[in-house]
Amino acid sequence: MPNSTWTSVLRQICLPASAVPAIIPGMFGALIRTLRPRQWVKNGFIFAALVFDGQVASVAPLLRTIAGFIVFCLASSAVYVINDLADIEEDRVHPVKRLRPLPSGALPVPVARLAAAGLVLVAMAGAWLLSTGFAAVVFAYLLMNLAYSLRLKHVPILDVFFVAAGFVLRVGAGETLITVERFSPWLYVCTTLLALFLALGKRRAELKLLADSAGLHRRVLDGYTIPFLDQLLVIVSSTTIMAYSLYTFSAENLPGNHLMMLTIPFVIYGIFRYVWLAQVQDAGGAPEDLLVSDRPLLATVIMWGLSATAILYLGT
């Protein structure tokens, strides 16, 4: 953002002109933190269609998918800003989230609003340039998350389904960017179940951390209990393993020798590891952080990715 724009915004929030040059760098850093670049890894689901349709080595589809990934990063960052704006009062009394730029005051509300609007406009323009189908998915993603931020995140069970829907839309977005030949619908099922599993684990971690004051920080937590979430985790984890197992030997786009079944143990261990982290170690609040901080989980994901890719592209 040009310095003149920053200066105009800062003057609107009644800061003296002499303070503007010193504050702009810190405010820019606060804005970057609010955009959550560490969570852009979630947008990697947009590459699912490219990888599992066997087109990674094709330059044009690869470049279009990379461009789509960048656009989705802008859209998801807009969603994070909007969500923080909607939650600013609750976050101010949260033991961890109160340190975020918006609730802590490091990022002024007018700047956040301006950034959110700009990100939405740029993301939609970029999506439209790539394809109308991709633009429709990005628009649906933004609209769904707006409804989620304003109301639906306060509705138990429905809230985690909307989180899962965001991942499914990412997969669908990747499919609109390329000409798909062998992409299996089983991957939509597996994506939905995996996203539900991670969302439930996150809700459990939040409930455990906040204890009796959970409802004050996130109203939807009043509709959950630890035993209920543990029961849902058992159901979803079991279903995820079953769905992935069925995918490995029934999807049409896989090698006929069923070598993909060799990746099932990685999935089972990864799910078991996450359940252990959530229920024994009381972790799971931020799955993207666990993926980086927990070496066994990270190693499992890497080994699954390497083995699945090798089977898809080298298997006969």
Summary?
By secondary structure, the chain is mostly helical.
Would you kindly provide a written description of the structure presented here, covering whatever features stand out?
The N and C termini lie far apart (52 Å). Helix 10 packs parallel to helix 13 and helix 12 packs antiparallel against helix 13 (264-279). This protein is an all-alpha fold and 316 residues long. It is globular and about 55 Å long. It has helices spanning 3-12, 20-34, 48-52, 59-86, 88-91, 101-104, 109-130, 132-150, 158-176, 186-210, 214-217, 226-250, 264-279, 287-293, 295-314. It has 15 helices and no strands.
Tags for this model:
mainly alpha; Tetracycline Repressor, domain 2; 2 domains
Number of strands: 0
Gyration radius from CA atoms, angstroms: 21 Å
| First-residue to last-residue Cα separation | 52 Å
Tell me the name of the CATH homologous superfamily of the largest domain: UbiA prenyltransferase
Named at the architecture level, the CATH assignment of the largest domain is Orthogonal Bundle
Overall mean pLDDT: 84
**Morphology:** globular
Query: How many H/I helical runs?
Result: 15
What order do the SSEs take from the amino end to the carboxyl end, as H and E?
Answer: HHHHHHHHHHHHHHH
Fraction in helix = over 70%
- Sequence stretches where pLDDT stays below 50 over 5 or more residues: 12-22
Q: Characterize the biggest β-sheet.
A: none
By CATH reckoning, the class of the largest domain would read Mainly Alpha
Assign the CATH topology of the largest domain: Tetracycline Repressor, domain 2
Q: Kindly name the structural category.
A: mainly alpha
